[in-house]
Structures
1.
Amino acid sequence: MKDSKIKSPYTSVIHAGQHPDPAFGSVSVPIYQTSTFAFENAEQGAARFSGEEKGYIYTRIGNPTIKALEDNIAFLENGYAGIATASGMAAITTVITALCDKKSHIISTASIYGATRVVIDSVFSKFGIETDYTDTSDIRNIERCIKQNTKLLFIETPANPTMALTDIEACAKVAKEKNIILVVDNTFASPIIQNPLNLGADIVLHSVTKFINGHSDVVGGIIVPESRDLFEQIQKVMTLIGGNMDPHQAWLVLRGVKTLALRAEKSQDNAMKLARFLENHPKVKWVIYPGLESHPQHALAKKQMNGFGAIMCFGLKGGFEAGHQMINSVKLCTLAVSLGGIESLIQHPASMTHAKVSKEDKEKAGITDDLIRLSVGCEGYEDLEEDLAQALDKV
Ligand code: LCS
């Protein structure tokens, strides 16, 4: 079946870009675990390098196993093509390196993954790139930050860890008017739940470490630009800097992505029920989950997401101390950073994923000390509820 005929995401995660191998008909995409590809003769080598002949040269530049994953995610995100990277951070830093120069200004979501903020502030700032962080959930804040030299609008929605949403369509409109490139980190939603390119974004990227791979056993990233022009600019820099994915890593992610639609369905069903359970629990002060009517942007979630995802954050009436007691008391959920795995993970962002963000910046971004982040997995709901209930009893 041609990829273009696929209608359902349950089909595309399994089949898009993943075809029986022409060599022996292997149904699972083979792991082409090689650094380099033999040329038949010197002329062919020269023709591959000049671009006259299509074909593989060297794995940093391209590899069939990695290409299968790139094609799969590019299809899921409806983009021009994919660029797989060694990690989500490699995806982010490659995009910024490729598109910004020493005169560039970036506008970014204030509540963004800790390392993204730290790399922008401590590494890209060395090369003259200036960044303003703002609450991008209000488009007026973005408009206020725009400068003559604003090159990128880099948003994360839902945001890590506050679960604040940003209106992708509204951002795309402003970005187009001002000739700014809109980049969306779609890690928290996954391509099953949100497709930023369809809403007008120029580039979507993921930490595939999370939902796309889904088994907490691989670190990886991917960039999917909407146009050939952006693809070529970014791919060139990725192959030069060398933040490429490895073939074995790509194969593991190909294996994981096949169940993405099923995992998304089960995990967000669990998450919806757990969010309601927590919201009604006497020891819980607040819960922020896009599926709850109490989420300040519940209407936007319904508009731009296809479901509400599997991540939430909450705070207990007993604040920081009580939250710590709770995360120390879970038995089924694992106390660990990362998210989007098949198993439920719980952590305390202020002292863990966002520990290196200054106290002042954390406060401005709404990353409070009492905030606990829960990434809900695919376990049976009753076991998850029982675990959270017994952990809350210990508080
Ligand atoms: N973007 C988002 C939204 C993330 O949450 C992360 C990692 C990255 C990018 C970076 O991806 P990586 O290089 O790790 O593949 N977020 C993590 C988190 O919240 N806990 O541990 C890692």
2.
Amino acid sequence: MAVSRIDHIGIAVESLEKTIPFYRDVLELELLSIEEVPSQKVRVAMFAIGNSRIELLEPTSPESPIAKAIEKRGQGVHHIAYAVDSAAAEIESFIEKGIRMIDAAPRTGAGGSRIAFVHPSDSGKVLTELCEHEQAEEEN
Ligand code: ZN
């Protein structure tokens, strides 16, 4: 199996401050972390739900891909991320299957994960992320 579970669902928001209370106080999910990911020009709030997570993404710059997504489509579900053992191996395997990748090599995502996005034209227009974690982090 190429992917093992849904790692997280990424949601584009204009403001973490305005959005966090719904997830924390109404859904009563555990807020795991808030961190800035400079490579993607976003601030990320991560909530735990079962062995998956909800990832709220707030742009830190108008050049952020998330700022552009909000400009085009408004706030809302941005991507689905699947857990993989090795992002690099899956990139290679997906390319062999004729799938175009936005990321030809893994890059660093939230929490030190290694991530890669599939080209939405080859994933039914659902922005799809492959997400690899360090083994130690999975046990936390
Ligand atoms: Zn993500």
